[in-house]
């Protein structure tokens, strides 16, 4: 079905409008009840199901620690190298949350009829733990990840939890893993953290989950925002290609030459190359679940992503509707810096609120930093690819970049939009000073070069 067909239905169907409103109202009501209960934490007169309680967390350390590979090793580039332990916490409708447990990393055991395998009842988070220049381990704005994790869980009817207790569990897990996997001798190193929740009840039927499992794992990631040559080259969404495949441009606003020379047009490219989505492909839509971090947002996008890679691009720039509204770049938020039609330097990104855009932690941090500086006008509004084309034609287009956890701040060199190549100044040999300045500010907080409330120090155990 084409976007125009969807638009006509959504504007004339009270049933569809009501369904979207009911879903939003129900989600907000559950979140409100969860937050109210978390704030009160009073003991009721009658027994209730148990809350998530980090103080009950037990630790069983592995007897067989894994070797820690070098950062540029094939294991790290494969993004499959996990740390020694995992944290798990089981929930049932009847009893609530059981005691969290940190134990040796290993396989999960679920039945073939588990809800997650049939109805996509799962959500996850993506964040990092950093070893700073001062030797301390930090999380970056973990309160935002915790809140988004709760919002995602609520959106797909998974159980609520205290975000404060979740943070304590997360920090304890990082504290256990940090000494070996973020060695104090190696400053400015990180591990990727993946909190996840899945519905595990062994029964078919489209219904609210009656059992669930929360777990947290840590994975070694390469620095996806830096160019690499050799065995593999990382791509913007966190996957890696062998050196025999297409070359990938740098993600740091500087020129890179790849080890492979199959495509001369891509060699020495700067920044990220994007292919705008066709009019008949939609990743997220108003009233949908693009604002929740659930697997259903990602799996269906892989075919289009593969098409982009085959054509020499790094990711899809997702557009919506006949108007070609700009939404996200791959799985990251997307920003454009331009001179608006009044001649002001303006940073624009798609707005939150209608279920289309994920509330990225990096997105929020970019907006907070730029607003605090006050030298650029910040606008969150719907804008179209046609506006970008017009700005490029008029010489007003300054920079574009993606912002996310995995590949951080990635400047854009060009966008292919339905037969037209829109080249950003970076793609013409200029620098992406605005994006790189923001990146440096955020890295300074993450790695402790400056002390900031966003960098939360974790005690090592």
From TrEMBL:
Swiss-Prot/TrEMBL keywords: Amino-acid biosynthesis, Aminotransferase, Branched-chain amino acid biosynthesis, Pyridoxal phosphate, Transferase
Keyword field contains Amino-acid biosynthesis: yes
GO terms (BP aspect): L-leucine biosynthetic process; L-valine biosynthetic process
Keyword Chaperone appears in the UniProt entry: no
Listed cofactors: pyridoxal 5'-phosphate
GO CC terms, sorted: mitochondrion
Class in the EC hierarchy, top level: transferase
InterPro entries listed in its UniProt record: Aminotrans_IV, Aminotrans_IV_CS, Aminotransferase-like, B_amino_transII, BCAT-like_C, BCAT-like_N
Protein EC: 2.6.1.42
Catalytic activity: L-leucine + 2-oxoglutarate = 4-methyl-2-oxopentanoate + L-glutamate; L-isoleucine + 2-oxoglutarate = (S)-3-methyl-2-oxopentanoate + L-glutamate; L-valine + 2-oxoglutarate = 3-methyl-2-oxobutanoate + L-glutamate
Biased composition (Low complexity): 252-267
Family stated for the protein in its record: Belongs to the class-IV pyridoxal-phosphate-dependent aminotransferase family.
Region (Disordered): 1-21, 228-267
Protein name: Branched-chain-amino-acid aminotransferase
Organism: Exophiala spinifera
GO molecular function, one term: branched-chain-amino-acid transaminase activity
């Amino acid at each position: 079905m084409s976007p125009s067909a969807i638009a006509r239905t959504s504007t004339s169907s009270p049933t569809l409008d009501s369904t979207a409103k009911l879903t939003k109202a129900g989600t907000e009501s559950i979140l409100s009840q969860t937050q109210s209960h978390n704030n009160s934490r009073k003991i009721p007169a009658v027994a209730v199901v148990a809350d998530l309680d980090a103080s009950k967390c037990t630790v069983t350390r592995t007897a067989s620690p894994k070797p820690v590979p070098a950062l540029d090793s094939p294991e790290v580039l494969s993004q499959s190298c996990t740390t020694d332990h995992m944290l798990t916490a089981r929930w049932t409708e009847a009893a609530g949350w059981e005691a969290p447990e940190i134990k040796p990393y290993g396989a999960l055991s679920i039945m073939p009829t588990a809800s997650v395998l049939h109805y996509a009842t799962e959500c996850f988070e993506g964040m990092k733990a950093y070893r700073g220049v001062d030797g301390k381990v930090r999380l970056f704005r973990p309160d935002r990840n915790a809140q988004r994790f709760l919002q995602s869980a609520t959106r797909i009817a998974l159980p609520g939890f205290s975000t404060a207790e979740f943070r304590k569990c997360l920090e304890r897990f990082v504290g256990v893993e940090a000494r070996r996997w973020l060695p104090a001798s190696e400053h400015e190193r990180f591990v990727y953290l993946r909190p996840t929740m899945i519905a595990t009840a062994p029964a078919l039927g489209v219904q609210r989950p009656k059992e669930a499992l929360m777990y947290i794992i840590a994975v070694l990631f390469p620095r996806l925002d830096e160019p690499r040559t050799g065995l593999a080259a990382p791509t913007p969404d966190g996957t890696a290609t062998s050196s025999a495949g297409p070359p990938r441009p740098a993600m740091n606003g500087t020129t890179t030459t790849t080890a492979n020379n199959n495509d001369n047009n891509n060699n020495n490219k700067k920044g990220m190359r994007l292919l705008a989505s066709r009019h008949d492909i939609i990743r997220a839509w108003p009233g949908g679940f693009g604002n929740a971090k659930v697997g259903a947002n990602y799996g269906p996008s892989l075919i289009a992503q593969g098409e982009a890679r085959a054509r020499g691009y790094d990711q899809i720039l997702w557009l919506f509707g006949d108007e070609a509204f700009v939404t996200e770049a791959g799985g990251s938020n997307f920003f454009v810096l331009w001179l608006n039609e009044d001649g002001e330097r303006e940073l624009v990104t798609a707005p939150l609120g209608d279920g289309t855009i994920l509330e990225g932690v990096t997105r929020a941090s970019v907006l907070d930093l730029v607003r605090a500086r006050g030298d650029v006008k910040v606008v969150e509004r719907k804008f179209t690819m046609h506006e970008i084309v017009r700005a490029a034609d008029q010489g007003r287009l300054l920079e574009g970049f993606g912002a996310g956890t995995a590949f951080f701040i990635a400047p854009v060199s060009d966008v292919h939009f339905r037969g037209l190549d829109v080249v950003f100044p970076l793609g013409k040999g200029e620098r992406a000073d605005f994006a790189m300045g923001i990146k440096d500010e955020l890295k300074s907080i993450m790695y402790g070069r400056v002390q900031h409330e966003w960098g939360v120090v974790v005690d090592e155990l």
